[in-house]
Hints:
The chain has a two-stranded antiparallel ribbon. It is mainly alpha-helical. 72% of the residues lie in helices and 2% in strands. Mean pLDDT is 80; it is low at 1-14.
Amino acid sequence: MTDGTSELQAAPPSPEPVVAPIGVSLRTAVCGFLMGAADIVPGVSGGTVALILGIYERLVTAISRCDATFLKLLSQRQLRQAANHIDLKFVVPLGLGIATGIGGLASLMNYLLNNQMSLTFAAFSGMILASSLLVAKRIPRWRMEHVGVLIAGILIALRIVTLEALRNPPDTLGYMFVCGMIGITAMILPGISGAFILLLLGQYHDITDRIKGLVHGEISVEVIVSLGVFAAGCLTGLLGFSRVLRWLLLKYHDATMAVLCGFMLGSLYKLWPFQADTTKDVVKFKHKVFEHFVPREFSIDVVLAIVLCLAGIGVVLLLDMVAVNGQQESA
């Protein structure tokens, strides 16, 4: 006959719960909401918000665990082990929060682009400028080769944003898939805005318009299919290209950061606040053609644009300051 202590020692450990306590899940969902709200704004990185909230490393780890081990566990129907492997109790509430944040702000961003494009672009420009400076700060010591790839990145971005194809992007599901694949990769990087990438690719307005319609109950086969294809592109980019990007950052960190900084600076041409609509008869925003101009007088609109640009710079720098302080306190 054995005593109770021996029985307790011999008992196998209880499996890790798949579902987190409600309070923990709620906090994770709130973090996801803040990330989603940031991701929908061109110029603010959801990755930066994740850093501020202290969940960035856990997020990257969860993404990296969508690997062969996870697929093997699924094929063997070891669902609990598979869920714990990818930290499902963290991923699910975070994902729901992100979706809620994106859906909540999609209507506002869509409205601002349609009705206040000049002032909206001014604020976005400030955010992108500040974000590019933060990316540049990630290079501890600048060398001539870094300056070279920075300039190359600027020139390549300028060429891309002035391409005729991006002035009138295709209405194909394949293009939407590619946009999702590229955009999601930027969204998980601190300092890089995925929404800005979608804006450059000419899909930002369409995506926010479809999300806005979905939130307001305007459901159609076209909306569901297009958003489904976009989501599939996001998943592909998350599991595939994000690994390549992490490899580049591991092996060629400084050069990769210099190129990304150049891309952001060169892309600012797309966000020049003063653009005249030369196609007023065109309804769809992404098919409109805008012509850049320089204001001839110092009007109230110019002053507002400058103020909003500076405000955009301040918001991003403040977020970065909070993130840095949070990392130092947790170290």
